[in-house]
Design brief:
Thrombin, subunit H; 39% strand; 273 residues; mainly beta
Amino acid sequence: MIYALDKRTGKILWERAAHEGVPLDKRHIKSTYANSSPATDGRIVVAWFGSQGVHAYDVNGRFLWKVDLGRLDLGAYDIPTYEWGSASSPIIWNGLVILQCDTQDDSFMLALDAGTGKTVWKTERDEIPSWGTPTVAVTSSGPELVANASNYIRGYDPRTGKELWRLGGSSKITAPTPVFADDKFVVVSGRAPERPIFVVRSGARGNLTLPEGKTNSVAVAWSRTGRGSYMPTPLIYDGILYVLANNGLLDAYDSSRRAGASLTSPLTRWERC
C-alpha cells in the first residue's frame, strides 16, 4: 500500500494498493515488504517494494508506471538460504529514479526515466547484499553518486552510471546511507570487526583503498575503525559528525576540516551512552 497524508492534519488524501499476491521472497523477522521509503520530487511518487517491483504515481495518486526487477535475493552473505528482504530506497535526481540493488548473485545500480520508467543506464556491480540508500551530491568537482556496500564503497557519475572511484575496507553488512557536507562524503558501516568511518573528498578517482596501517590519503581525509554505526545513518550538523551505534553509544567528531588541511585523524568531541 501507498498512502498520501495531509501533513497538517494526518488525514488520508489517497491510498493505492501497489501490489497484491503471495510474496516472491522471505523477509527478516523485524522487517516488512515495505522497508523502502517512497521518494518524490513534488511531481511523482516512487515506491520500491523489492521483489514486488518499483511503482510510480503522480502526487494525486494517478498510476504512471511499474518496473518489475524480478525476484531479488537479499540476505546473509555467509548463509545464502537466509532471506532478509530489501531496504534500499529509491532516490530522484534530475529526472532519474536511481536504485541500488545488491543481491546474492546479480547486483547493479539502475537509473530509470522518472516520467516513463524506461532504463536510462544500468551498471553491474560485483557486490554481496547491502541495504543502504545511495546519495547524490553536487560537489565542487561535479555531481557524484555514492553507494555504500561491502566489497567497495563506490562513487559514480549519476548521469551515466560510470564508476569514478572505489574504496575497500568496509563491513560485510552495510546499511547506513552516505552523507555529504563540506565537499566530503562520510560513509560508515557497523558490522564487526571492521566497523569503519570513512571521510572521502569529492573529485577522487580510481582505487582509494588505504594500505594496511594507514588511516588517510590525498583522497581519504580521515578514517577510523571500530566506531561505525550498524543501522543508523550518521548526521552532520554545524561542523560536527554524529555517529550512533546500535548499543546507544553516540560519538561526535570534528568534521569541519577543509581540503588542504591536516590529514590527521579528527578529534572525538565526546562520547555518550
